Amino acid sequence: MKGVSARTIAAAAGVNQALVFYHFGSVDDLLTAACTMHTRARVAAYSAEFARVTSLRQLLDVGRKLQVAERELGNVSILAQLLAAAQGDPKLGASVAAALQLWVDEIESVLRRLLTGSPFAEVADLGGLAKAVSAAFVGIELYAGVDAEGSQHAMGALEQLAVLVEVVDDLGPISRRALNAKINRAVRTR
């Protein structure tokens, strides 16, 4: 990240810069450790809320709450800088991806629980869907910094999809069988 050095980190922490190298080996290793540690703590802070989610709309509500809190804490700006720096640094990229995977794992767990028995579970790669949801939230968080109204519009579109899933899941048995048959045909022809 631009402007990040052992000197600036040590000055902010009020320690000797040699400690950065002693404990972490390099600035990149310190950033990796900080990113992973901080992300674990943030995911843990929301895990109970994720566990209480009983619908996709509730998952979106948790996402909205998370976005507000993360923006207020300055974590969205840090994430933007890490993502930008990771584009040219494969080692940092792997670390940021591993940290983001902590969110993906949490979201995938919720999606598996919510979509079990749903026609969507038969056609959707839930691991891929969890990554898509995570990527959408990261994108919406970053987008909100330049177009808050547009990011709200995007969240509204996700809510419409959640409503669609709920409607499909509430279909009667005959309609569900017909839908499942249609999904199976569509999957086979891909």
Structure commentary:
The protein is mainly alpha-helical and about 190 residues long. It has ten helices and no strands. It has a single domain, classed as Tetracycline Repressor, domain 2, CATH 1.10.357.10. The longest helix is centred in the first third of the chain and has 26 residues. The mean pLDDT is about 85.
Radius of gyration computed on alpha carbons: 20 Å
In sequence order, what are the helices and strands, one letter per element?
HHHHHHHHHH
Q: Distance between termini? A: 42 Å
Number of domains: 1
Q: How does the major sheet shape up?
A: none
Strand content: under 5%
Classified by CATH, the class is Mainly Alpha
Which spans of ≥5 residues are poorly predicted at pLDDT below 50? none
Portion in helices: over 70%
Q: How do the helices and strands line up, and which of them pair or pack?
A:
Elements: H1 6-13, H2 18-24, H3 27-52, H4 56-72, H5 75-86, H6 90-115, H7 119-123, H8 126-144, H9 148-169, H10 173-188
Helix pairs in contact: 2-3, 3-6, 4-9, 5-6, 6-8, 8-9
List keywords for this structure.
Tetracycline Repressor, domain 2, 10 helices, single chain, mainly alpha, 190 residues
Describe the structure concisely.
The protein has 190 residues and is mostly helical. It is built from ten helices and no strands.
